[in-house]
Amino acid sequence: MNESPMEFAAKARTCLFLNSDAEAVADFYVSLLPDSRIDNLVRPDPDGPALVVEFTLCGAPYMTLNGNNEVVSTHTFSISVLTEDQTETDALWKALCADGGEPGQCGWLRDRFGVHWQIVPKALPRLMSGGDPAAGARVQAALMQMGKIDIAGLEAAAAA
């Protein structure tokens, strides 16, 4: 990890504009997913909190920026994670909903920092686009009834 006065590592990256806690948010996110790390901290005051934290999340560049108490996150921006199986889906969902996070519908949630996420098992796009329009419609209807996505429920809907 690099600490720099005001030098950015990535030319293009997603910025999460936060009320506060830029470093805590980045630390939490990189702890959840493989191929994730803190890349750079920008501290205008060496003894103060980080203003900007650049990090890599599953190989994609992000940054958190402290700065506005009036920031309200919406679904117009979310972090979407494609999970391998139900175990990974459950673990990520539980971690992101903990400590004040809020589950939503169809794999959506809002974490305790106010950032929206979509937790999508690889089975969902496979089952929705498997070549049988009726099965895809049943999978979509089942999905609309779910909070956290249940792969077994999707598979049962596809097979019905």
Secondary structure layout plus pairing:
Elements: E1 2-4, E2 14-18, H1 22-32, E3 37-42, E4 52-57, E5 60-66, E6 79-83, H2 86-97, E7 102-103, E8 108-110, E9 116-121, H3 123-128, H4 133-143, H5 151-159
Parallel strand pairs: 1-3, 2-5, 6-9
Antiparallel strand pairs: 3-4, 4-5, 7-8, 8-9
Helix pairs in contact: 4-5
Fraction of residues in β-strands: 25-35%
As for the number of domains, it is 2
By CATH reckoning, the class of the largest domain would read Alpha Beta
Please mark out the parts with pLDDT under 50 across 5 or more consecutive residues, or reply none. none
What's the Cα radius of gyration? 18 Å
Distance between the termini: 51 Å
Which structural category do the helix and sheet elements fall into? alpha/beta
Mean pLDDT: 90
Brief descriptors of the model:
160 residues; alpha/beta; five-stranded mixed sheet; 9 strands; 2,3-Dihydroxybiphenyl 1,2-Dioxygenase, domain 1; 27% strand
